[in-house]
């Protein structure tokens, strides 16, 4: 393997998210495109859906993500039982649930549209123990989220985690009205745009092993940091952590990726063979494939933290500039179409004054969706 290909391998695998594979992965830009296949995903045993994302490495002058389309993706068991993945578009392939036996071995098979065939090593579905507790602590730099877990002596002693953060935030002004067909109409409660929710999907490689401990116990594993002043704790914050038991080989693979990407200026310290994944091209054995596929049950736990629970958070709202005079004004009804009626309007109505003028604010100050979140409360959210 050349140093160029090796560097691609390190960069691509580092960005892959083994547990948040429902989010589309964008391969990195590279100067010379060998079109290497990237296989990203984890096989979730049980009711949760499993997603495999196929893509190709791309050139610097290629702005769009290169998803691998029209492939056949399947998981095959020892008895020949096959689970077919359904193409979802843009290189994403999904199956609703996988009823896998933890004693059996399974192989992921891929046939791309150009006829090339790829296969994983045989993988066993691991049983993941429950997360015992998730807790947080505040110090001078912010809040740290950690967890405790333990497994039986005969369970896997290798763990990986990922997480999704969700937080609630508010805009500067509450718009209770919309402008429809030349008139102000009251917004329905489900169409409110004052509160929004935003998500962040983890990209860190979070690993631990108890292989050198007398007991299979993990205490105080740090998962995430929320820096002091972050919007995430401006109102209400939640984190959902997923835990996976993995094989020793998978642990070593991700540990090597983590180590090499954290060594500034020494990307090539490890031998390329140390970063070999478990996907192979069977139709052209010399072709490099990027990725590591695992199978396990998934355990998860969610906690919430309120702004009132932390001290001296020093959060500055993203809408602080909305206090400036230019962000808020009154217009006559004759000006309404220009300000709030055009398809790409930049203002939003708040109501009327006692002379019939419309009170309006800039869109960014009155519609929380302009800050990147959604105004639809997540189903799991607890107030």
Explain what the structure shows.
The chain is mainly beta. The radius of gyration is 25 Å and the shape is globular. The chain is 10% helix and 40% strand. A hairpin with a 5-residue loop joins strand 9 (105-111) and strand 10. It has a 16-stranded mixed sheet that branches. The chain contains four helices and 26 strands. It has a domain at 3-127 and 247-297. Helix 1 crosses helix 2 (248-262). The longest helix is centred in the middle third of the chain and has 15 residues, at 248-262. The chain starts with a helix and ends in a 17-residue tail after the last helix.
What is the CA-based Rg, rounded?
A: 25 Å
Distance between the amino and carboxyl termini: 53 Å
Question: How would you characterize the largest beta sheet?
Answer: 16 strands, mixed
Name the beta content range.
35-45%
Helix content: under 10%
Number of H- or I-type helical stretches:
4
């Amino acid at each position: 393997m050349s140093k160029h290909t090796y560097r691609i391998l390190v960069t691509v695998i580092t960005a892959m998210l083994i547990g948040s594979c429902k989010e589309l992965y964008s391969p990195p830009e590279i100067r010379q495109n060998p079109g290497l296949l990237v296989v990203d995903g984890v096989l979730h045993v049980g009711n949760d859906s499993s997603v495999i994302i196929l893509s190709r490495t791309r050139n610097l002058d290629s702005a769009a993500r290169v998803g691998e389309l029209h492939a056949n993706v399947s998981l095959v068991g020892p008895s020949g039982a096959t689970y077919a993945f359904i193409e979802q578009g843009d290189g994403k392939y999904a199956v609703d649930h996988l009823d896998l036996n933890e004693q059996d071995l399974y192989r992921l098979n891929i046939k791309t549209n150009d006829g090339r065939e790829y296969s994983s090593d045989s993988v066993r579905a691991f049983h993941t123990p429950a997360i015992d507790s998730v807790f947080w602590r505040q110090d001078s730099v912010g809040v740290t989220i950690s967890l405790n877990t333990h497994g039986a002596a005969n369970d896997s002693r290798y763990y990986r985690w990922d997480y999704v953060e969700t937080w609630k935030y508010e805009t500067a002004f509450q718009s209770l009205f919309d402008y429809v067909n030349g008139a102000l109409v009251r917004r329905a409660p489900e169409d409110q745009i004052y509160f929004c929710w935003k998500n962040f999907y983890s990209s860190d490689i979070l690993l631990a092993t108890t292989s050198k401990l007398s007991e299979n116990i993990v205490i105080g594993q740090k998962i995430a940091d929320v820096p002091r002043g972050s919007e995430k704790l401006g109102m209400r914050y939640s984190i959902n952590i997923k835990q996976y038991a993995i094989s020793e080989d998978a642990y070593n693979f991700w540990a090597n990726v983590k180590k090499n990407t954290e060594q500034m200026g020494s990307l090539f310290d490890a031998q390329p063979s140390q970063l070999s994944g478990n996907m192979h091209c069977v139709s052209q054995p010399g072709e490099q494939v990027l990725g590591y596929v695992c199978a396990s049950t998934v355990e998860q736990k969610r906690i919430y933290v309120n702004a009132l629970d932390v001290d001296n958070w020093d959060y500055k709202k993203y809408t602080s500039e909305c206090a400036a005079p230019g962000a808020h004004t009154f217009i006559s009804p004759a000006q309404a179409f220009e300000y709030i009626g055009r398809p790409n309007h930049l203002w939003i109505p708040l109501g009327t004054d006692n002379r019939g003028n419309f009170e309006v604010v800039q869109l960014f100050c009155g519609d929380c969706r302009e800050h990147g979140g959604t105004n639809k409360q997540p189903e799991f959210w607890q107030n």
